[in-house]
Amino acid sequence: xxxxxxxxxxxxxGRVAEPENDDVVPDAAAIEERNRRLARAGVAAxxxxxxSRYRLGTSEAVFELLRDASQRFNIKLHTLxxxxxxxxxxxxxxxxxxxxxxxxxxxxxxGLVPSGGEGNVSHGTVLDRGLRRVLxxxxxxxxxxxxxxxxxxxxxxxxxxxxRFTEFFAFVGDSTTLxxxxxxxxxxxxxxxxxxxxxxxxxxxxxxxxxxSRAAHSLPITSPAGQVIGMIxxxxxQPLTGFSQPRLAALETTGAVVGRWLYWHxxxxxxxxxxxxxxxxxxx
Length: 284
Hints:
- This protein has 284 residues and is an alpha+beta fold.
- It has helices at residues 10-15, 28-54, 59-72, 77-86, 123-138, 163-168, 178-185, 202-209, 245-283, and strands at 142-149, 152-159, 171-172, 189-191, 215-222, 228-236.
- A hairpin with a 5-residue loop joins strand 5 and strand 6 (228-236).
- Helix 3 packs across helix 9 (245-283) and helix 5 runs antiparallel to helix 9 (245-283).
């Protein structure tokens, strides 16, 4: 099976860190410009690669192919673009991109989806159910889900967090946040008191505190091989004393359940979309 997992790497993280000066809190316009730039970068990289690979005339034509495959397979455009860049390309002249790709059934989602319904849920539903389960275990109403793309963590789902927070943390590529550090270690991590913790730089700390969060916990979403493919974080209105071992174990299980389903999705649905893209582009 083609491993369609992406991870946050320390090398890449340092290169895309935002903001560049920890002592300067970026204004809303600067954050908005950064988010637009990073959002465009992944799609632009995929367009450039596909134009070169298939000798297609324009990036606009390639964009239409990407958009068609995205809509046909119900995959976000940026997720498909990330896969185009990340997954090794087809053999030169090959009729199929993945000739030996197995068709595996969706894994179970115990605690999230009733048995037998795993194959009928959407990618977004799995993220939403995973987030709700984590918030239930940690007894809070604030949290978010990020997935690893382009060597960064990209915000995908959130609840209870204001726009200033979600815009600031739309893309996380440096190590001055709890989620990035937990992604790099592959282990759960808790900041019991955000105000006094040395985990965050000043800009990140201010962006978290202003939303009403005083403590946070980050849970890696892991593939069956243990690779970090995303994060689920909970935020808390009061400082924490920590979580019991049974709660930590329940969180660990949730991260593994969500990760197993996402790994299946990336190695079945996403690869099917790439196969369709290859066939369409080859025939163009």
